[in-house]
Amino acid sequence: MEPEIQVILSFLAVTIFIALILTLNFRKKDKLKVLIWIWIIIFGILMTLIVVLNGIEIIDSVSLSWHIGIILGLPALISLSIGTILVLYNEQKYVLWHGYTAGGSLIVTIINIILLIFLTPTEILNYSGMIHALHIMLGAIGLMTGSASFLFGASGQRNLARMTGYFTLIGWWGAFILGLFL
Question: 61 near 55, Cβ under 8 Å?
Fold first, then answer.
């Protein structure tokens, strides 16, 4: 996929996701259901386009590393995003599913970080620089706040879990977008 198209689709997906999160957070009881579903459908279509178009790129990739590219990062991001949408839509009904999707995204992210060990020296040098340093920092912030959110959620501290969960989303979406420039 052309990098410009990928960046535009990703920025649109982030914008729609933010609009969806805001709509879910500030809705009155059973109000704005149509708008919520419109945001969900648009977000789903954009993410599907990103996955399909990048899937073609992944198949053509010459790198043997699963860390390079979005083979593991994008599924983790989609899983966390879906879990967040579900729990904001109806916390009592979907809190368990949010735990599964967010926990799964943490596990996939940890696997993705472990795979850094297996990068070749050439791959490491090809992905150095300021953008990559910011990508690493945002990913690390997301991992730390995601772990904290998991612990807060497991201990019943819903407000702290929600706050750190938002920082996780910001960190991982930021790392994803910066990863497009690598």
Answer: no
Nearest to 176 by CA among 82, 109, 97: 109
The tens digit of pLDDT for each residue in 15-27 reads: 898 888 888 888 8
Contact (CB, 8 A) for 86 and 94: yes
In angstroms, the CA 66 to CA 20 distance is 31
* Cα 52 to Cα 47: distance, rounded to the nearest angstrom: 9
Q: Dig out the tokens for 81 from the structure.
A: 């995003």
- 116-144 tens-digit pLDDT: 888 778 777 777 788 888 998 999 999 99
DSSP 26-61: HPPTT-SHHHHHHHHHHHHHHHHHHHHHHHHHHHT-
